[in-house]
Amino acid sequence: MTGSQWELPPELCCRPMAFVALTGLDVVYNAVHRAIWDAFCANRRADRVPISFKVLPGDHEYPKCRTKRTSYEWYIPKGILKTGWMNKHLNLVPALVVLFYELDWDDPQWKEKQSECATKVEIVRTSLQSRNTKVAVVLIQKKTPLPPGRGLSSERASALCHACDLSGKSLFVLPHTDHLVGYIIRLENAFYEHAQTYYYTEIRRVKSHKEFLNKTTHQLLFVRHQFKTAFFSELKQDTQNALKYYRTAYSLVHELRAHETNMLEIKTMAGFINYKICRLCFQHNTPLDAIAQFRKHIDLCKKKIGSAELAFEHSAWMSKQFQSFGELFDEAIKLGLTAIQTQNPGFYYQQAACYSQDRKQLAQQLCQVIAGVNYPSPDPLDTQSGGLDFYGQRPWRQGHQSIDPPDAEKEKTGILALQIKERDVPHSELIIALLSNAVAQFKKYKCPRMKSHLSAYNLLLDYVMCDYRTERWWGLLTAILTTALRCAYLMASIKDYIIYCMELLGRASTLKEEQKSRIEKNLIKVLSNEVPDAEPECDPSSASAARSLWNDRTALAGSNELTIEVQDYIPFIQCKAKFQSPSFHVDQPIQLQVFLRADCPHPVSFNKLAVSLSNQEYNQWCVVESSGQDSMTVLPGKTKCYNFSFVAKTEDVGKKIEMTGIELMLGSDSGRCVFLSWRGAGGDAASAHEALQASRSSRRWGRSIEAHQELDWDSLTMQHSTMIISRVPKISVQLSHQPPALTNEMYCISLTVQSQEEAVAKDVKLTAGLKPGQDANLGQTTHVTLDGSEVCDDGAPALLPDVPLGELKPGEKLERCVYVKCVSTGPRVFLFHVAYSIDTAVEGRHIVCKCHKDQTVTIETLVPFEVSVKFVSTKFEPLDRVSVDIPFLLMTDILSSSPWPLLLTSSSLQLLTVTSNTPQLQSQLQEVVLQTGERASECFCLRCPPQTNINNTVATGQYLISWRRKSSSPDSPLIQTTVTLPHVVLEMVPLYIHAELPSFGRVRESLPVRYHIENRTALVQEVEMAVEPSDAFMFSGLKQVRLRILPSSEQQVVYNYYPLMAGYQTLPQLNISLPRCPSFNTQALRRFLPQRIFVKPQGRQPDDASIAAA
């Protein structure tokens, strides 16, 4: 039988999960349905419920349900477990079918869609064909659902459940909103509960059959039902009960009457159940129980061999049992289980390999007698269905449970077919794979003796030699190589013979010189396509047979070229290569050296040496070949150096050139050509350690080149790659500017480029602007241009690429101005990249080199000035709100923060809801120069028109300032800074009062004051006015008056005040009340009236006496 015969079925090895079928989803053409499906199946984390989902059409045909058996009286089972049963319940028969249907509670076609949904549910029930599978409906809705039990949704949900014959727990709503995944997770939990109910029902159904069984004829059914109960418990995620049922099934399977015809079926089912028990024990973190179960399993089954003519099948089965347990053990370790040296998966892989060896030996013995026998026809292993009905049965007698086979002839041909197939099994590959797994495990768990025992015991020479090379066991390596060379000679394996000769001639070999000389002469014979001399200790008859094989090999044509990868060996020719520098300019020849050294007793001749590079176009310059009959020779113990040189291509600037390999050709076309191939820059299995030792030795003893004229091979370093960099530019780039830059100004950076080349620099290009790689926001707030005559707009780029500058002759100087506009503050790094091409010659070859020089500068950007704005009354008192149609003042203050003098050329206002109270606004800052820290202020008289819509807050407009640096040229563009004026809060006053009075008064002289009272409302206003007495004034006029003012009209009241004291005096307070506007705060009217006035002293009248005295 083939190796696949013993593989465990995938449905047994996987983790059983509840199967839920989703219908009604069009995941191909409907984006909403696709999003729902992705939410179910994509990125499922470990914390989500274990469910296997599958989208099926609504009319999908599920497997037919067999008629329920009511009696087992005359029933005789044909086998233990059907091959399709596990797959059926994992992937074909769902625990729950969910119908998705798009329907909102307020859908205008509710009746029609309700009927359609009920029809779809009935179709699903019909296709399930009396199975216990649950059915649920999910309504896909566009709106967020209302809480349950409210209004229309509750009524229609009840009606839909009645129409579809569903319980309320089987109807769900899925709103397609931003929280789709959250709703899906809640749905999954509900589906999981329905699935568990289904599997619980199935467990009870299977258990109900037990009362109809008897142990005389229904032994197989006891095992089958226990297995099914355990499997359903796993699907229900009840692993504790599943483990209990599997243990019971395992005990029952070993109580079956075993004979030669059913032995394979019993072992197969025992292996399945044992696998399940061990897997669950590891899952429950009880590894000792798993190991104890497996040992018990092996003890019970190792003697159940079955047919003697198919004894190799028992070894194959035993091997698979150990391999499967090793894989389970390894999987548990990856999930966190801790293994130890004495108990790890390696021992089980080792035992599996031992049984595979037994299988190989038994197959050789049992299949030897059928040599030359043809495969029987018709094929006894073919079945009508293409597979077995029950696990572990023979294809030619399925369902047969009696002790004797029904047809002796068929039994004979079936055994013959199995033996012929076993003859073609690659036993060695199976053994090596298992041993390799075992060695890897022993290496992982620090079991070097077990690892070496396995390797040496099974003659895995390559594996052993690799370890011995790494660990530098030269004596052991030489002994194994000697044995391997003798084997290669006896098998006439030319390539292996050459490889072993090369290593035995190398520096790692401990052979004596005369032995090496003999091996080298044999190697030369093989390279000359001659038969080598026999190896010592070879049996004469074996040597004679080997000589005949060698004669056949040498006579064959077309097999005279061999390529040997020597990197992982220690050959007799050592090779190291290096580029002479880690980088080369493109106008310099690239130079590399290849060093060769021979460790054999006699000189070595070769005919070709070639270096392969990552760019294959350079390979033609890195080849050296022998000329004519002369060959190149390397003397024993001497180092020979070969130099190569080539010119790089300009398009490779910025690229890395690597050595991909070195090839040395031994032999000739007339004999046999052997190409020794090194990867990269050479070296072999021992080079790294030798280089490390050499570096330590040189540091310890202070070696010097003067003391050692001969090259020290171990200290030679390999340089496998080099970088091609651009030619060194011979130009100077100078920048001149006046930092810092000011926001929004056209900041000038002068660029001076001078050529120091000996030839004309052609195609000179400038890339200037913000250096890439900085904050992305800087790219949006930085603009670069070459035109300084006007301020650039926001569409100007942050980097100007490849601006042509023409040609530069030797010594010529070129100047350009680059203007930068920075909208925001902060530091910026600017790049000035000058590129050009120039003709030059390298080793007689003319090339065009592209050169470039970069200059960077960091410029800080500052705000030129700070502007503060405030609104005040006409008495210069701060305002928190502005009255409609009453003048007020706008005060602006500009504080210079620039280190350079600023010239303010003009200023202006752009007003929105307010207007100027003067006929024409005129700037008060024309041609004003501000030094650092100086201020400039302006004042504007404004008014809010009466027809303005009264809102809480309104925008007033913008304040525009035109300026430039004082040091800039008069032709430079002006920068306009826009300051948004603050919003103001408007209020409507029903009454406006203002006073007319002189600018000053005089003691004891009449001071006339006229009060103008305006009614700003559409109603007649009654105004009560009263003047409070004052110690500083006497007055004439009505102390208390009551006025009636018509809408939009004005009344005037005149008083004559008589000052009594000099100085700043408080005027008599005027109290006003509005009976028709009780909510209005009349105290606010006082802000419109003058509060104080300056009173001069009374003047002295000149008299005659004073004049006479004068």
UniProtKB/TrEMBL annotation:
One of its GO terms (biological process) is vesicle-mediated transport. GO terms for cellular component: Golgi apparatus. The keyword Transmembrane does not apply. Residues 262-506 form the Trafficking protein particle complex subunit domain. Residues 1020-1072 form the Trafficking protein particle complex subunit 11 C-terminal domain. It comes from the Eukaryota. It is found in: Golgi apparatus, cis-Golgi network. Transmembrane segments: none annotated. Keywords: ER-Golgi transport, Golgi apparatus, Transport. InterPro entries: TPC11, TRAPPC11_C. The keyword Glycoprotein does not apply. Belongs to the TRAPPC11 family. Involved in endoplasmic reticulum to Golgi apparatus trafficking at a very early stage. This is Trafficking protein particle complex subunit 11. It comes from Amphilophus citrinellus (Midas cichlid).
